[in-house]
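Worked example 3. Consider a protein that binds octanoyl-coenzyme A.
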Amino acid sequence: MSEPVLLHTEEGIATLTINRPEVLNALNAELVESLRRHLAILDSDPRARVIILTGAGEKAFIAGADIGAMRDLDPLAARETALLAQEFLNDIERCAKPVIAAVNGYALGGGCELALACDLRVASENASFGQPEINLGIIPGWAGTQRLPRLVGKGRALEMILTGERIDAREAWRIGLVNRVVAPGELMDEARKLALRIAEKSQVAVRLAKEAVINGLEMDERRAGQYEADLFGLCFATRDQKEGMTAFLEKRKAMFQDW
Ligand code: CO8
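Given these inputs, the predicted complex is written out as structure tokens:
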């Protein structure tokens, strides 16, 4: 049996590929568990500075949760499954490393929600996004009702959630759901280029910047500003802050050492 998730690490970039192309990478419990294990390891692996998540095959990033495995769940089991998956998506959001979704096709239901939990999204022109749960008689269960409106606004999110209709990559870019759209053949190159640009920064600053944004969004603005100031102050305890500013003043490239 093939591995449900493939890992490839090169030049500080770890790429996780969801590998069930025969069912358009639909997520089942085994796959989620495997993704969660890989992510936990990468979170503390110094060789991985940025993580890219993508789907195997030409057609799909992830076509959602496995409908076959979901159909006969009782309400409590469905709730439990949703909560477990949400915990996993929270792990992605709270991962110390930036996580980029390279969306290579359908990103539907749980697949769209997984992409939403990533920090950045790069899509190929043939990608599409949707929350089709309403067509199955359910609602999103992996926090799509929360992350989607925060990213694209209430009206656009409700339109996607209530109609269940897909939007293409260009429309996803127009409404701010993805950061950039590229030709299918260039998707992984573009995601890697973006990852490498982040990987060359001080990883302490990268981590603190991510924390300021992710945690700050859960606070009121005033408290979030104070929190940012705390983390800003913390940067001045690092060698990389001295190096970054000295390098600027000496008109040379900074040599960051991640501490
Ligand atoms: N689950 C299981 N199998 C799937 C899924 C899925 N989500 N998506 C596709 N497949 C399978 C198909 O059954 C088919 O298998 P087979 O070859 O054995 O018939 C194979 O993948 C290829 O798919 P299609 O033949 O349908 O390919 P098309 O190109 O005709 O269509 C689509 C592609 C449009 C993506 C179509 O497959 C589709 O609509 N898929 C379902 C999309 C969907 O509704 N996703 C949302 C699922 S619900 C969800 O994600 C909720 C998350 C929260 C859950 C909370 C926990 C309880």
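Take a moment to read the result before moving on. The mean pLDDT is 97. The chain has two domains: 5-199, 203-249.
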